[in-house]
Each structure stands twice: as structure tokens, then as C-alpha cells.
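pls design
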């Protein structure tokens, strides 16, 4: 990690820990902004990983409450509304809590490198709601899918620079166009927008990979098989007994993990008393670390509380200051005691996440 990278990491972690959540929508010429968000969140997740090398790991044995239904970490194929997607058609208990991660978009066809249903992650927060298909390895190919709010027109600028529309083949008989830099004939990150049956605009963008992984042909074919609706995404965690003041503002389930090492990672940001509390999870095992210019591991000045539950590494942090309400309850240990990891196997995950 260079000095610039180290300074950037410190600044981003501080901003996340101490600042309020940004507004719910950004300029959607998203190639630069989305990349920055993922870098920020990946590095936040790494804080918990690095802390393993600098703090004792607490091993917690927990008796799991029954899950709200065995489930796969993606909405069921062919469904338009599914409050509790299940891995089997058998009846499941009615959830008593709620799921902070929902999606309005669901991939259908994807190229082979995406790995099918188990290679799709979801995110909700200040960037809106989107799904991401991600490959594996260095510079893994990715396809990002989102839908604009009702009545919102996609912006024709990115980072202050104007964009140009290039007509595309219609999707389901409706208008579609490519977005390219003004004066350019194409982009290394092709972006396709199209009008959906509901009258809302959808957008699909490709990143990374080898030549041929995310071509315009690949994106157009994927867009033509996208489904729209409302789904709760099963997560590997259950929170119990949290006061109503705890608000889950941002949730990201990455499949595979953004560092390219783990099968998945989960990041949940709560807001409380104007401060942020983050919960990160990943299967227990090897993970990426960052080093300073002297080659030593990066050490967070405000290290998280790290534990291992049911084969899952759990990292809870509150940045530079613990919210007063949480401090009164017992601080990060109290939050850990009310956080239950459900295991690394997606079959044990639930949509009954916050009770």
C-alpha cells in the first residue's frame, strides 16, 4: 500500500465512522463513483480482518435460534414478489422481524464467469438499490444492475463531464441506448440504459475482466433477461433486541468477497445518535490485509471488536466514538451479544434479520 493509499484509507474510515449517511442518490454516471464506494467498503471490511492480527480473537459459542426458513442468497427464479425466498417449496415460519436488504432487480441470463445465482451480490443504501454479478480473481469481471426511481430521468453527465446517447437495439420493444463520453465512440466500461414496462429506467454496466467478458453483446443479452419486482435477500445474520433508534442505513452482500479471497462478505451500517456502527462478516479463514509504507500491517487506531461465531468472523466497529445510547447499553460487547452469525452456508441464512 502506498502512502497515498494509506492516507486515503484513513480518511475514508474516519468519514464513515463519524459522518452521517450521504443523500440517497448520486450522479449515476457511476463508473467512478461505484468503484470508489466499493473501495471504501472493502477497506472498511478489511479493518476487521487486520484487527485479527493485532487483537485477540474472541471465540463465541452461540445457540442459534431457528432461521426464518432455509434460503439461497438470491431471489427465487421466476418470482415477482417474494417476502421470504426459500430453497425448497415447503412451508416456512412467518418471519417476525424484517430484512434490511431488499432488491428491485434480479438477473436472469448471465455469462458463465458469473457462477450463476451464487455469484450475485446485492446492495442498498445511499447509492440506491442494485445487484452485482462478480467473477473471481484479479481484475474480476463485474456487471452492475440498477433501476432508477419512478419519474427520475438518468443523468447525462458523469463527474461533471457530458455524456452522449448512442441508440441500441430495443429491449422488449422499448427504447434503449448506450452511454458514452461526449465525442467518444465507446467506453471501456459499457453502460446500457433501457425503459422498463413500468416506465422506469434501468441501467446495466460492465467492468473489468478479460476482453470478451463484458462486451456490449453480453450486456444487452443480460439486460433482456432482467426481472423486476421486490425481493428480500437472505443474510447470514440475525440481530435481536436492538432499540428502535438503531437504523440500518446501508447493507452490502458481496458474492464473492470483494477482496477476491472469501466466498462472500456482509457489511451492515447502523446509524445511532448521529454516529455510525458497522458490522462486517465473512467466512472465517484467510483474507486480504493491507500494509503501510514500512511493510507492517495497517493498524486501525480504533480497532473493532472481533469474534468468531459458527464459522463466521464477526467484526463490529464504531469508528472514533461509540454512540451514547450504545455506550449506555454496554458498548460494542453488548452489540456483539445481540448479533448472531448463522454460518457460512447460504442454506442457513434468513430474511428474518432484525427482530
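designed seq:
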Amino acid at each position: 500500500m502506498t502512502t497515498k493509499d494509506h492516507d486515503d484509507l484513513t480518511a475514508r474510515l474516519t468519514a464513515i465512522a463519524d459522518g452521517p449517511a450521504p443523500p440517497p442518490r448520486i450522479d449515476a454516471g457511476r463508473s467512478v463513483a461505484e468503484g470508489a464506494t466499493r473501495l471504501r467498503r472493502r477497506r472498511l471490511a478489511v479493518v476487521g480482518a487486520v484487527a485479527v492480527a493485532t487483537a485477540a480473537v474472541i471465540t463465541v459459542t452461540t445457540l442459534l435460534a431457528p432461521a426464518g426458513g432455509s434460503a439461497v442468497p438470491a431471489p427465487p427464479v421466476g418470482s415477482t414478489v417474494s417476502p421470504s425466498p426459500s430453497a425448497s417449496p415447503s412451508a416456512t415460519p412467518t418471519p417476525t422481524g424484517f430484512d434490511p436488504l431488499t432488491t428491485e432487480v434480479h438477473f436472469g441470463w448471465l455469462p458463465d464467469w458469473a457462477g450463476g445465482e451464487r455469484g450475485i451480490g446485492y446492495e442498498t443504501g445511499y447509492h440506491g438499490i442494485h445487484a452485482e454479478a462478480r467473477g473471481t480473481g484479479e481484475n474480476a469481471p463485474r456487471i452492475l444492475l440498477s433501476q432508477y426511481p419512478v419519474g427520475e430521468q438518468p443523468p447525462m453527465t458523469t463527474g461533471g463531464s457530458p455524456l452522449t446517447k448512442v441508440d441500441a437495439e430495443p429491449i422488449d420493444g422499448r427504447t434503449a441506448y448506450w452511454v458514452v463520453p461526449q465525442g467518444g465512440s465507446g467506453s471501456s466500461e459499457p453502460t446500457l440504459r433501457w425503459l422498463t414496462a413500468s416506465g422506469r429506467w434501468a441501467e446495466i454496466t460492465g467492468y473489468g475482466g478479460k476482453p470478451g467478458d463484458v462486451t456490449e453483446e453480453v450486456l444487452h443479452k443480460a439486460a433482456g433477461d432482467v426481472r423486476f419486482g421486490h425481493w428480500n435477500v437472505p443474510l447470514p445474520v440475525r440481530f435481536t433486541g436492538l432499540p428502535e433508534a438503531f437504523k440500518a442505513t446501508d447493507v452490502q452482500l458481496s458474492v464473492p468477497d470483494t477482496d477476491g479471497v472469501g466466498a462472500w462478505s456482509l457489511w451492515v451500517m447502523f446509524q445511532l445518535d448521529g454516529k455510525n456502527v458497522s458490522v462486517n462478516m465473512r467466512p472465517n479463514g484467510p483474507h486480504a490485509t493491507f500494509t503501510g509504507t514500512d511493510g507492517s500491517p495497517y493498524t486501525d487506531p480504533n480497532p473493532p471488536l472481533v469474534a468468531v461465531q459458527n464459522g463466521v468472523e464477526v467484526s463490529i466497529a464504531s469508528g472514533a466514538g461509540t454512540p451514547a445510547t450504545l455506550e449506555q447499553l454496554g458498548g460494542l460487547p453488548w452489540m456483539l451479544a445481540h448479533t448472531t452469525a448463522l454460518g457460512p452456508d447460504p442454506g442457513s441464512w434468513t430474511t428474518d434479520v432484525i427482530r
